[in-house]
Amino acid sequence: MKQYPVPPFPAQPQSIPGSSADMKPQPDYGEDSYQGSGRLAGKRAVITGGDSGIGRAVALAFAREGADVLISYLNEERDAHEARRLVEQSGRRCVLVPGDIKDPAHCRKIIERCVSELGGIDILVNNAAHQATFTDLQDISDEEWDTTFRTNVHAMFYLSKAAVAHMQAGASIINTSSINADTPSPQLLAYATTKGAIQNFTGGLAQLLAEKNIRVNCVAPGPIWTPLIPSTMPAEKVTQFGSEVPMKRPGQPCELAPIYVLLASDESSYVSGATVAVTGGKPLI
Hints:
globular; seven-stranded parallel beta sheet; Rossmann fold
């Protein structure tokens, strides 16, 4: 619990969507710690936002558990190629698909690429997200609100719908929600609202897909040290990031990956419609 960096951190402003390589300290993706045991052997996974942050840690863990991976990302080429290197170094195939998931046609293309290049799809991880910080409601433009919902909610619907058409019994969808779904930060109004929608979507879709034997769950992270933080938050928030939770530090991406592995694996065959909190000791309401 105490092996990872604690604040204060250096001020390190970045432009959206941010770069993992420019973060200080560097996020831990599990490169030197995650040991696989074949729990996802032969499975094919799509991970949105898999170039960095939580998505990269999940891609690495899935690969070390025996899965081939398609990584969807916006335009972060340097991070995406590093993520692919880690997956391929683990002995698995990795397909990179850049593009904007706000576009429903691009979402369908992502699933089509997975099916055509990896031979099918067994796991969908809806992880990519957009957020921005505002202290006044009047500062949130219509375009900003629309962008947040199209990225965080609409894309999840497009991708899930396209993926289910190709999924077999035993498949799994895992959505990334947030502690903000239960205890919303007022400065992240649009983002927090979408995270509540993601949690609700997860519960409803789990019931809808039960007859197909497809499970749907979500993970609710607390403060996690990813490029989204220095690229979307004020410098003073970044320097103290994670200090507000009982563990007094942010989580590292590698600390979430095992939860995604569990939810993707056949070991969680009776788990669907669940929200798993990974919040550094701060309980969900």
